[in-house]
Amino acid sequence: MRQKLVMGNWKLNGTKESVNTLVNALLAPVNAATNVEVAVCAPAIFIGTVEALAKGSALQYGSEDCDVHTSGAFTGENSPVMIKEFGCKYAIVGHSERREYHNETNEVVAAKYEAAQAAGLIPVLCIGESLAQFEAGETADVVKTQLKAVIDKCGIKSFEKAVIAYEPIWAIGTGKTATPEIAQNVHAQIRAFLASFDADVAAKVQVLYGGSCNAKTAPELFKQPDIDGGLVGGASLKPADFAAIIEAAK
Asked: Which residues are involved in binding substrate (predicted)?
């Protein structure tokens, strides 16, 4: 039985005050959710703050990205080794915003995935299609290509220590959400594709849904057999909403 995982992605949001308020508000619902893992991925500058606030609680945390390099002359980047040193468990890689705004190819994403694992982090591999690709019926081909780049570089067994997040780009921050049936269908296709390489790995890997997952949509999404939780954007910045999503996962 795969454990449900609810993960917040704060994106480019937060102040010292808001981070303190948010994490402190989450500790009680997180500690009460004994059958659900809860994590937040924070901007790098706030990871140390989250580390201090989460100490002694069940809240896990991670970074929103990581570099392919562990050290060197790469100004402005965040080494996966440094991220791990602050107690992070996860590193998001391949988010659609990184792919679009920073021109990260499938090969770059695979390299980041590999670097995160080498540093002892669990990569959260984001995959998903654009609206044009969705309307053209290309969803399955897109997600398979994105997965195959990682399999080619790191092997199917690498998914024993990874999380997948299916994020239809057309549903991120738009208020649009794939219906539970659409999301379940894609999640099942993801798992079937992985199973074509290794059925045991496919059965165990957590696949999260991440397209405008919120307090209203989470209950029905989380009932689907191949949806193992959510990668939550805007709603993760609102303690009451995020707590409701955790409750739905319970």
From this structure: 9-11, 173, 212, 233-234
